[in-house]
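Q: Could you predict the 3D structure of Long-chain fatty acid transport protein?
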Amino acid sequence: MKKILVSTALLAGVLSYAGGFRVSLQGVKQLAMAHTSAHAEDASVAFFNPAGMSFIPSKLSIVAGGFGASNRVTFQNLNTLQTTETDNPLGTPIYAAVTYRPLEKLTVGFSFTTPFGSTIEWPSDWEGKEMVQKLELKSYYFQPMVSYKFNDWLAFGASYIYAKGTVNWDRAVTQFGGQLNLDSDASGHGYGFGFYFRPDPKVDVSIAYRSPVDMKAKDGTATFKFPSTSIYPLLGLNSSGTDGFTATLPLVEEYTIGLTYKVTPKWLISADFNYHGWSRYTKLTLDFASAPIATGNPDPTVVVAPKNFKNAKTFRLGTQYAFSDMIYGRLGAYYDESPYSDDHFIPETPSFNTYVVTGGVGFKLKQFGVDIAGGYAMPQSRNVNNKTLGFYGQAKATAYYFGLGLSYNPF
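A: Sure. Here are the predicted structure tokens for Long-chain fatty acid transport protein:
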């Protein structure tokens, strides 16, 4: 039994993807300005800070948009010099929001976003195939919210978060020429709140907090496929090679401070600071129904995977210039820290210290708005030194994003 199958760290890798990969694509206009948050022009501010809804100039505001996200990861074994690249499909994050002000001081809203999600696909026969061959993640945030405006310059807002997600992961089991698939739905609850200030017509300040969300996977399915079914009874599996598992997947809290300053009536500058509390992600526990996966534990059906994530920061700077009342140009740049060090790098959820440059244009046609944005990411290469997995080499990546957003402020 000790030769079998699944290492604790590898199982943790797939499930950490739900909490360890944050996609900053919740507003096309915001992306063009480095995904900064202190912009209360339409309902897209709702995800970033519910208090900002009180400063939207329209009583009713509706927004929707989507992105294309492409990334490629390259791994090179420095001993053999063999290089492997991922063949990831195009990711398509989407968002939508609506806000309405029934009373002068009260605004209600709803935001739908996909803040976590991607697909990574390595060649089926690559040297890390026992860690991952393909991993798919989808997540959805549903946020009803309310904001109260105390006076002309201060509002407070709060939101409830219902999160729903799925994960599907394939990896090889070379000891028996087989494969393992982990498939699970998960859900969780959280909240957010924030303050939005406008002490001067030229200045917007956004302070927001988004709570941790513990995603609970109660009915996960682990499916083992081997050339011979005689192996299944050794693992306590049924004739189809399946087992159940449960787990709690932590998504961490996020703190944001944003500032927008109107240098002139046509030109504004925005800056954000994000703080991500990844240090709460110290371990991940998976409880299998029958399979004795953790051979060294008192209960071999319980897998406890140590995770050594650390808190991370993001620094953002963006700008917008109004060429006319109808056409707006936008630029931005930001730096995003990885939540783990080189000796904890895992190919299921590859993460890098990353510089990103962004840009876009916006068009206003009376009550309608159309925004286009793009971004190019420059992840910094990593010298992989994961002794726990026996995974060594150099990892590099590239990524780019593009998006189209629509807004409607009828009255």
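Q: Anything worth pointing out?
A: Residues 236 and 290 are 5 Å apart (CA to CA).
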